[in-house]
Amino acid sequence: MITTATATALLKKIAGLRILVIGDVMLDHYIWGDATRISPEAPVPVVDIARDTHTAGGAANVALNIASLGARCTVAGFFADDEAGKKLTEILAGHDIATIRTPGAGATILKTRVLVQHQQLCRLDRENPPSAYAIPTGKITALFRDAVRAHDAVVLSDYAKGILSDKLVATVTKIARREGKIIALDPKPKRALAFRDLDLITPNRKEALQLAGVEPEAGTPFPAAEVCARLYKLYRTRNLVITMSEDGMLLSSKGKIGKTIPTAAREVFDVSGAGDTSLAALTLALAAGSSLETAAQFANIAAGVVVGKVGTAVASPAEILARAGK
């Protein structure tokens, strides 16, 4: 666990950073209520709605986490000129997060969750096929060349909705490498993106196995050495952090296993967005000059704060400092 002094110094450095997030932005809509009766029309609960809340989701939640930890942030993604798009840009502007609108068609991605007594009853998704959000190849360099130069690090947030493509990842990686910027990715194996030569990837346990092409037998321990070695051979990513849920974070540099950081979560109410928090905090700490171990300890505290809240949430510097050294 990092000390309060280390966390304080790190947060001070983070406050001077600018981070660019590129990915699948979405609006998270929560309907809060209670259900005490069954509908006479069908065997389903009737929800009496008490209130509605909205927050940034997907790549926009990564940006929100970055801003909440004190850095300046710009997020690039598809914002339609619809009610969800306007609400999402309003939320981001309220946290001083700048936006880059990427070309596309269709609706702003909207996820509506119905919660009854703080338990999720169902989720309703409104989105278009990935082709609607794909950025034309010829526009990628013009969109992101100057933006990458103007920021200290780039985060690619993939929710498999269509913004990130092989060409976009390759182009942005090339610009980042040329400009000496840190670049990180939270990959989704089902998208099978071709990425290489990044500074950080943050798959969870299942995603790491899929990316590595490893299928362990049921009941056997996680094959950490094999997975880390294969991921480095395949993708040449400098740093790998595998989020292992209740088992914490497994660290690896250049294919070699490092430490496992125990989870900092005290109570778990909702894991929604915890991966976004980890990605944001890890990237910020690395961009601030921290070692991978210190960055992981910092991210672990931030994720521990978030899972103790209901719904997509963020961690503040005050909450980080309250848990540091404990």
In short, what is this structure?
Keywords: Kinase, Transferase. By secondary structure, this protein is α/β, with parallel strands linked by helices. It has one domain: 3-Layer(aba) Sandwich (UDP-N-acetylmuramoyl-L-alanine:D-glutamate ligase), CATH 3.40.1190.
Put simply, the count of helices is: 10
The strands making up the biggest β-sheet line up spatially as 5-4-1-8-9-10-11-12-13
CATH T-level fold name: UDP-N-acetylmuramoyl-L-alanine:D-glutamate ligase
Number of strands: 13
**CATH class type:** Alpha Beta
End-to-end C-alpha gap: 7 Å
CATH architecture identity = 3-Layer(aba) Sandwich
GO molecular function: heptose 7-phosphate kinase activity; heptose-1-phosphate adenylyltransferase activity; phosphotransferase activity, alcohol group as acceptor
InterPro entries: Carboh/pur_kinase_PfkB_CS (IPR002173), PfkB_dom (IPR011611), RfaE_dom_I (IPR011913), Ribokinase-like (IPR029056)
GO cellular component, one term: cytosol
Keywords: Kinase, Transferase
Report what the structure shows.
The chain has one domain (10-33, 48-323): 3-Layer(aba) Sandwich (UDP-N-acetylmuramoyl-L-alanine:D-glutamate ligase). The chain has 326 residues and is of the alpha/beta class. Helix 1 packs antiparallel against helix 10 (317-323), helix 2 packs across helix 8 and helix 6 (205-212) crosses helix 7 (224-235). A 9-stranded mixed sheet has the order 5-4-1-8-9-10-11-12-13, sandwiched between helices. The protein is 34% helix and 27% strand. The protein contains 10 helices and 13 strands. The model has no long low-confidence stretch (mean pLDDT 91). The longest helix is centred in the C-terminal third of the chain and has 15 residues, at 292-306. InterPro entries: Carboh/pur_kinase_PfkB_CS (IPR002173), PfkB_dom (IPR011611), RfaE_dom_I (IPR011913), Ribokinase-like (IPR029056).
